[in-house]
Please model this.
Amino acid sequence: MIEPSPLKKVILAIDDNLYTLRIVQHTLEQAGYKVLTAVSGEEALNIITEHGLPHLVVVDIHMPPGMSGFEFCRTVHQFSDLPAIMLTAVNEEATIIEGLDEHAEDYIIKPFSPAELVARVKRVLRRMGDFAYTLAPLTQVDERLTINFPARKAIVNDKPVSLTPTETKLLYILMRNAGQTVTTDFIIRRIWPLEPAFEDRLHVHMHRLRRKIEDKTHPRYIVSERGSGYIFRAG
Model:
């Protein structure tokens, strides 16, 4: 069964500068969000494994000596479509274009206005939609199906089933919008943003995902809307 989403949306802030991190945390908590913090991409991935995916991530680009913000986004987008906002001092056109084209929904340059940060967070969350399931390391759909997004694994009738990165991201997009039609065009843009892709390619991955998580005699989760898209049944 679906549990109600928490009242407070969860935001993960990642920055190697503790002063910046405190400002971001205070600003977003004052705006009513629950904020988790990490000083590196590696620590952020550990938090996601331990606590589950947040609703949104605010991440710096350069965080030596570990992975960059871009590397973090590439990693987390292998198993989700987690929306990201880059918060960085890098003001080079090529980097901004790369960030917006490949990794993030928005790009904010430091020093930043706290009010602007809140406004941009609200805008991204409105556009991306809520995640209909309780955020946790294991996302339980019902008594039959549980998803472990970081591990790219489904648990079907207590048996682990491996998912490919594309299947995991596809499932995340559908579950984020559970109960609502997600258009084919939207899914294709989110899965393959930088390459040409067509409905046939999506149908192949959708078919393979269904074979892994559905009951063959009584499919219940992913419903096709002819000529429109797909719905993940919310209950």
